[in-house]
Inverse folding.
């Protein structure tokens, strides 16, 4: 079907000229103000360019160096399913892929409704939910298990995710040693590091420090992933009114400067290494001092980040399925629906934080399941309307004629299954709903979530791969 035959709803905010305005402003920050870099190797890489380094760590980047780095980075990153070359999450253009968030201390138990510290069993339950839902394309760790202990915690988390889902994993870690161990585990499943580079099943989420600082630890991770040609999103988290200007344009421009300076170091280490453009631009609620997720400004920031990343030709990082609410309630549902629709219309490529409550302190598997329903609904909306001859249905209209009907039409029989059907939302009339127990959405959601946790069986790893992962964990 030709593209002219499809009418697709899209959300845009910046013109090409307005993107240029943000770009030039960020270049001015990097030229005039500069960034602090506390990593010896990164500084040495920069000394071999025309960057200006003063006071041991203050680096001022000329525009030409930034634009060189932008030309090196690839426009597409392909995340694959565990142990295969099957594409799971194409990061390019306006392709949107959804997944969960990472490292919440608290778990909202769907059985008891209790909010409590995460355990290993809870993380496993959440991973099973992600693995079971076709609307989710990748997985993050979701919780910090309180019963895990501190030694090599992120490596053990990653091993747990590898065992319980075949979907790509976006991981976090403490340092480059963690990166190396985690990459080794993923390589063991992929059939070697070269196969992992060709068919990446993992992506590192890490951060510089706003405003305009690159710590040794964060930069070490950035350079390790570049050296290995494995994908990374090195996403700053400017908080408007706290660590960034209170205006959205100011926070966007500051975060963009931090991303661009990260990209320069990344591409100096290995030109062409895969890099995802992301900025966790939030604002501080001056009443509560929290970093707000459920706000129109946060969604405006998501559109802005998607547009600047696409302006650079880079894959983009996004957010959806999250809320400031402390419960899986009406507020959480409204936030999830709004954020999913914005992500799809804006075209963010790698959209995380599905399941976040309490502004990222609590993960709710019910929120994950509910958001999956919203993703399914909103994807149908975002698909748009076909205007080809078959969809215009002139022949079917002619056959029905004035006063006719389309219930028995061959055209209806051919196409009615294309209309979206809910899995959780209930369209029945009151009599049938009452006869079936008068279950409200919250009750149906809880039952569905518990059913997935108790019945889903992920595809297991082979015994030899599990042994190699165990060896890597013990060696660390």
């Amino acid at each position: 079907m030709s593209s002219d035959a499809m009418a697709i709803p899209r959300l845009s905010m910046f013109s090409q000229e307005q993107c240029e305005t943000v770009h030039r402003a960020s270049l001015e920050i990097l030229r005039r103000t500069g960034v602090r870099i506390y990593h010896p190797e990164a500084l040495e890489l920069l000394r071999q360019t025309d960057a200006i380094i003063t006071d041991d760590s203050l680096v001022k980047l000329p525009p030409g160096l930034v634009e060189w780095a932008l030309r090196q980075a690839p426009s597409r990153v392909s995340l694959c399913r565990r142990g295969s070359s099957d594409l799971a999450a194409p990061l390019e253009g306006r392709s949107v892929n959804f997944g969960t968030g990472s490292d919440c201390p608290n778990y909202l138990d769907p059985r008891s409704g209790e909010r409590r510290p995460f355990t290993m069993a809870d993380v496993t339950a959440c991973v099973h939910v992600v693995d079971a839902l076709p609307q989710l394309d990748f997985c993050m760790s979701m919780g910090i298990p309180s019963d895990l202990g501190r030694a090599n915690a992120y490596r053990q988390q990653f091993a747990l995710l590898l065992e319980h889902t075949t979907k790509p994993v976006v991981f976090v870690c403490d340092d480059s040693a963690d990166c190396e161990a985690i990459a080794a585990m993923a390589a063991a499943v992929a059939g070697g590091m070269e196969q992992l580079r060709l068919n990446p099943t993992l992506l590192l989420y890490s951060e510089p420090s706003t405003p305009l600082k690159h710590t040794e630890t964060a930069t070490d991770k950035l350079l390790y992933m570049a050296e290995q040609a494995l994908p990374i999103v090195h996403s700053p988290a400017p908080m408007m009114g706290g660590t960034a200007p209170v205006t959205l344009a100011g926070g966007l421009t500051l975060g963009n400067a931090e991303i661009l300076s990260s990209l320069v170091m990344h591409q100096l280490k290995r030109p062409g290494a895969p890099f995802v453009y992301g900025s966790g631009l939030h604002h501080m609620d001056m009443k509560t001092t929290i970093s707000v997720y459920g706000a129109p400004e946060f969604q405006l920031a998501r559109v802005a980040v998607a547009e600047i990343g696409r302006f650079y030709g880079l894959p983009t990082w996004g957010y959806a399925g999250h809320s400031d609410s402390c419960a899986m309630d009406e507020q959480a549902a409204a936030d999830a629906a709004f954020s999913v629709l914005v992500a799809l219309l804006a075209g963010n490529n790698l959209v995380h934080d599905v399941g976040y409550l309490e502004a990222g302190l609590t993960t709710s598997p019910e929120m994950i399941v509910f958001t999956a329903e919203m993703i399914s609904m909103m994807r149908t909306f975002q698909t748009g309307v076909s205007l080809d001859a078959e969809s215009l249905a002139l022949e079917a209209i002619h056959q029905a004629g004035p006063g006719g009907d389309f219930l028995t039409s061959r055209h209806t029989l051919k196409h009615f299954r294309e209309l979206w059907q809910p899995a959780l939302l209930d369209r029945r009339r009151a009599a049938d709903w009452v006869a079936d127990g008068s279950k409200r959405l919250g009750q149906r959601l809880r039952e569905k979530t518990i059913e997935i946790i108790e019945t889903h069986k992920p595809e297991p790893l082979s015994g030899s791969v599990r042994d190699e992962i165990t060896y890597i964990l013990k060696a660390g």
Observations:
- The chain has 18 helices and 21 strands.
- The mean pLDDT is 96.
- The longest strand covers residues 87-91.
